[in-house]
Amino acid sequence: MKKGKKKLKGMTLIEMIITIAVLAMLCVILAMVGANIDATTRATNNLKDKIVKESPYAANRGKSFYDRDNQPVEFATELGTISISIDGHFDFGEDSYPDPKVDLDIIKYDTEQIALDGRSAAERKVILEGPNSGINFRFIDFPTPEDESDEEPAEEPAE
Length: 159
Fold this sequence. Notes:
Blueprint: H1 13-59, E1 64-66, E2 72-74, E3 76-85, E4 89-92, E5 95-98, E6 101-110, H2 112-116, H3 121-129, E7 138-141
Antiparallel strand pairs: 1-2, 3-6, 4-5, 6-7
């Protein structure tokens, strides 16, 4: 009887190279996904920060804020008109109005200065040119008779 050699069990060199190549591709894909998640998280945090800083001024109809040096800064405003019309007719009780239309005077203002106040040049660049940079909150206010009087800037923030 002839005794055969025991066959060694293990991986060949080609199998090892293929395994390393597959693992390398998976690592590259994982790194790209991680970088995308990081960029998305930063952009989301910048947008959230912008909303947190700017929305109280819009909610309170504030037209100015105090900057880092406690100097009042007026928001950039623009006057405009909104036209609202209904095609057809509008019935109100016994009265009928063909093609009613109304023009409303508005004040459009931009609170981006709040988000930029006190930021470094690099942070300003990210806000102005980075992800979500095209998102700038512009608010519309309908002037009322009290708005025509001179208003004081919003109160100084508590420190």
